[in-house]
Amino acid sequence: MAAQLDERLERYADLAVRVGANVQPGQMLFVTALHVSHAPLVRAVARAAYRAGARYVDALYVDDHVKRAMVELGPDEALSYSPGWVVERFEAMAGNANVAITGNPEPGLLADLDGARVGRARMQAAIEVAIRQLQEQTVNWTGLAFPTEGWAQQVFGEPDLERLWEAVAFCTRLDEADPVEAWKAHVTRLTARTESLNALQLDRLVFRGPGTDLTVGLLPTSRFVAAGATTAGGIPFVPNLPTEEVFTTPDARRTEGVVTSTKPLAVAGNVVRGLAITFEGGRAVGVEADEGAEVIRSQLASHEDANRLGEVALVDGTSRVGQTGLTFFDTLYDENAACHVAYGSAIPVGHTEGSDPDGVNAAPIHTDFMIGGPEVDVDGVTSDGRIVPILREDAWQLPS
Amino acid sequence: MAAQLDERLERYADLAVRVGANVQPGQMLFVTALHVSHAPLVRAVARAAYRAGARYVDALYVDDHVKRAMVELGPDEALSYSPGWVVERFEAMAGNANVAITGNPEPGLLADLDGARVGRARMQAAIEVAIRQLQEQTVNWTGLAFPTEGWAQQVFGEPDLERLWEAVAFCTRLDEADPVEAWKAHVTRLTARTESLNALQLDRLVFRGPGTDLTVGLLPTSRFVAAGATTAGGIPFVPNLPTEEVFTTPDARRTEGVVTSTKPLAVAGNVVRGLAITFEGGRAVGVEADEGAEVIRSQLASHEDANRLGEVALVDGTSRVGQTGLTFFDTLYDENAACHVAYGSAIPVGHTEGSDPDGVNAAPIHTDFMIGGPEVDVDGVTSDGRIVPILREDAWQLPS
Question: Predicted ipTM?
Answer without folding.
Answer: 0.90
